[in-house]
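Handover notes (outgoing to incoming on-call)

Open items:
1. Aspartate racemase: sequence verified, structure written out, both below. Nothing else pending on this one.
2. Nothing else urgent.
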Amino acid sequence: MTKTVGLIGGFSWQTMAIYYQEINEYVNSKLGGIHSANLLIRSIDYSDLASMVSAKDLGGMTAMLCACGQQLKAANAQALSTGLPVLHICDFTARQIVDKGHRRVGLLATRAVMEEDFYKDRLRGFGLEVYVPDEDFRSDADRMIFCEMSKEQISQGVKTTWHTAYQDLVQDHNVDCIILGCTELRLVFGQEDLTAPTFETTTIHARGIADWALAESTVFT
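Aspartate racemase structure tokens:
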């Protein structure tokens, strides 16, 4: 069996569903049959996201992850409160970026993730330089994500705005690669839009967690 991981969410139930699906599909691709991951899910309403998760909420966990980038502000406190390691999205993403030889990264995400240091400092800890779009874009990012993208009601204008921010980071800041640091960005970027090496954090995180859960696990066939 795989090690048990706690999923803590989140901005939306859709994000939790994506994590659940991607982790289980990856585990099944490795183990075959009808195998799946051992997961315990703690879904939190977004308005209550600042609340701490206690150890009693996560009985049986060996580690936990936060499925909402903004909740990572409390990740260290949650680790201390629960005694469990947090499988941090930045760590999995940064390792892949470093392994590919990149150093200058452009970050697209929610306003808090782009502006505050809790996310960027974690990336900088791997020796990365982090660049974000201008203030006009950052001030409108949450409206686009919360009011349109999270509801999968995305206007062409919103898509164009994100695509322009992407290209500005590549051209004006000469970044080596782009981080798509919000699950909903999968809805506005197709493969044909990615003109630089691009790291989509949800998939990276989910597969990294699955690999961690599979390591030294015992599987009964």
